[in-house]
Request: fold
Amino acid sequence: MAVRDFSVLTGYARWLMVPLRRAVIFVLVTLTFAASTTNALSPTAGVGASGSIVPQDTTRVTTVIPGAQYAAGGLYRFLWGDHYRDAWTTEVSVPVLDLGQFADGLTPLSAGGGFQTKSLWFAGANGRPYAFRSIHKSASRMVPEVLRGTFVEELARDQMCLQHPFGPLVVERLEHAAGVLHTDPRAYVLPDDQALGEFREDFAGELGILAERPTTSEGEVATYSGVDEIIDAFEMVERTHVDPRVQVHSPAYLRARLLDVLTGDFDRHADQWRWADFGADSTPGWRPIPRDRDLAFARLDGLIIGLTRRRIPMLSSFGESYGDLSRLHYQARFLDRLFLTELERPVWDSVAANL
Reply:
């Protein structure tokens, strides 16, 4: 009888948990919606209607707020995370890009972007290509079309502040110190200048990061003296499979990957790499060029985000401890297995100690 009673109680508990879970979700969504509505009504000085940063003056250096829309109260932060809200809502002084002077003059070529940022390509009069990527993040392409324009898109957009607005600039300094191939990114505000041409309406006043691109749109090498060729990771893998004589400089790749771990950058899939060949006169092996450092130092805190992170193996939060290192390896696991397994333990120890 006791066993039967226990089974009845167990079945009742399972039945009760379904509406209980729904009730908890309903309460969380209601509280979040209320908090997000309050945030939406708060002043957003320095942010244009489209989310672009509007400079307070037109001098060479101007003061901007990278993301005033990320301001939030205590309850909202508890549920959805502190992230880097304080960094996004702090005024910073940023130079205004001089299109006539930088690189002997910049000419806008084309606009584009990924899932989160919008980009503007420039041709420098010095013969080198440059790309400007907005610091402002958009979540619309990450949300199913049926949910766009709803509070779901608003919540997704709000989570963009888990990225540090100027993280790529910090990583570049670390890459330089570690001897990892890198570009030279700098933060600028684009001017409201007729030199932007057809892109003026979308990009004038935009805060972003400008960096020299390793190759032109035709694939020609534009950066790094002594480099004969630069290719993407997919072609790199194909070449190593077709011709055993083609090799990757594994210690250089290990150095770059350990720096990824140091900065908590878990988004290191194949398309985040380019590979450079320095020719027959250098040490054999193609060397990696890491790119797109938006998720370095990413901070995924908050009650709901913390619960979500447990279910997604690739998500990792930057902090004082590393936590589960497999999360920092997940996105790069295919390249890591191809290019790092041949290295002996002493090489790992030596590169790690050097870093």
The longest strand covers residues 106-113. Confidence is low (pLDDT under 50) at residues 1-58.
